[in-house]
From TrEMBL:
Keywords, alphabetical: ATP-binding, Ligase, Magnesium, Metal-binding, Nucleotide-binding
Family: Belongs to the 5-formyltetrahydrofolate cyclo-ligase family.
InterPro entries: FTHF_cligase, FTHF_cligase-like_sf, NagB/RpiA_transferase-like
The protein, known as: 5-formyltetrahydrofolate cyclo-ligase
Enzyme's top EC category: ligase
Entry EC number(s): 6.3.3.2
Cofactor: Mg(2+)
Gene source species: Alkalimarinus alittae
Pfam families: 5-FTHF_cyc-lig (PF01812)
Transmembrane segments: none
Length: 189
């Protein structure tokens, strides 16, 4: 799946990014979410940058994952705008510098858009294998805010071809509430 997405042409990537932006903008959670975590595309992932520009224009706050400096395979989330200084992490992915005060607690996010390698229509997600997102969002399993309808929404972003029949889930895997692709929005939970 990683090989397939890396082989997409710049034209195909740009086209997919535009269509993904339409899927996301029309989704019910777009207007409701003020604090949105997103990622910068790597390894052929569907590119959310067109959507990021849309978030900025709509006065929403955008956040990017930063590898936690001490807690192994956990993520921090830092505010991202046009002026945010970025540097490459050990995977070669750009992330905000952590010398500023713009960190947000993961539970304060309204919407988190997950990168993924493959997904299924039940909300199963296969990631890059580090367990970063599963560890960081483990708190959502016992999230009291869910009763008030304030639960952090967890959505995956993918090229449509990244759908597979079934992802075997392990006990630590956090299922997604939905997946947005260049073709459709899946609501899974
Ligand atoms: N765009 C993006 N950002 C992200 C993630 C992601 O999947 N995509 N992550 C999601 O967790 C975290 C980083 N996790 C990652 C885990 C492995 C690799 C990776 O490329 N692994 C290589 C081996 C690299 C090496 O060991 O030096 C590989 O598997 O080929 C990249 C990111 C946080 N940021
Ligand atoms: N909440 C957790 N607590 C402890 N270990 C965990 C937790 N979540 C995942 N792990 C460990 O992390 C490893 C990688 O998990 P997994 O293969 O599900 O990663 P992934 O979801 O593909 O990666 P990523 O989220 O970084 O894209 C697993 O072997 C698992 O033991």
């Amino acid at each position: 799946m990683r090989k397939k997405r890396r082989s997409l042409s710049p034209f195909q990537q740009k086209n997919a990014a535009q269509k993904l932006t339409s899927t996301l903008t029309l989704s019910p959670f777009f207007s409701r979410s003020k604090h949105v975590a997103i990622y910068l595309a790597n390894d052929g992932e569907i590119d959310p940058s067109v959507f990021i520009t849309k978030l900025w224009k709509s006065n929403k706050h955008c956040y990017l994952p930063v590898l936690h400096p001490t807690k192994k395979n956990h993520l921090w989330f830092y505010r991202y705008n046009q002026k945010t200084p970025l540097k490459k992490n050990r995977f070669g992915i750009l992330e905000p510098l952590i010398n500023n005060k713009s960190r947000i607690s993961p539970w304060a996010l309204n919407l988190v858009l997950f990168p993924l390698v493959a997904f299924d229509s039940q909300g199963g997600r296969l990631g890059m294998g580090g367990g970063f997102y599963d560890r960081t969002f483990e708190f959502t399993r016992k999230d009291k805010a869910s009763a008030l309808g304030k639960r952090t929404q967890l959505y995956g972003l993918a090229h449509h071809f990244q759908e597979v029949a079934s992802i075997p889930l392990e006990q630590w895997d956090i299922p997604l509430h939905g997946i947005a692709t260049d073709k459709q929005l899946f609501i899974t939970h």
